[in-house]
Design brief:
140 residues; single chain; elongated; 4 strands; alpha+beta
Length: 140
Amino acid sequence: MRADVILSRLDGVLRTGDRRWMARCPVHDDRHPSLLVSEEADGRVGIFCFAGCETTDILGNIGARWSDLFAPRKRTDPPARRHRMRLASPADALKVLALEARIVVLMAGDLARGDAISEEDRQRLIVAAARLARAEEACR
């Protein structure tokens, strides 16, 4: 299955670079795109949810299988080599981190002024904090 087929099954798709997109994750209540979809030159498709949703759940939700993330091999293809799949370019990662940081700053401003935040906003703040913590952990 090519990336365009997977992208056609997702909402809120935004192109973020050459063969890279962000979309709303179909597994959780995603108001802001947190699902990275990328297509490698060899046809492999990568899927990563910055909120932590499991790829298996994402695939099941859009009616796809693990094997759909890999281009069909031809008998003439050389033996597969193990490559570490890049989940995001530094620019993509910075865009996601900037979004999460803005959410934290906006809600911190509300709280500092003594304004109450809704339960939905509180849950989104927790998601933003978790994403920032995961990014920090990935840098170690």
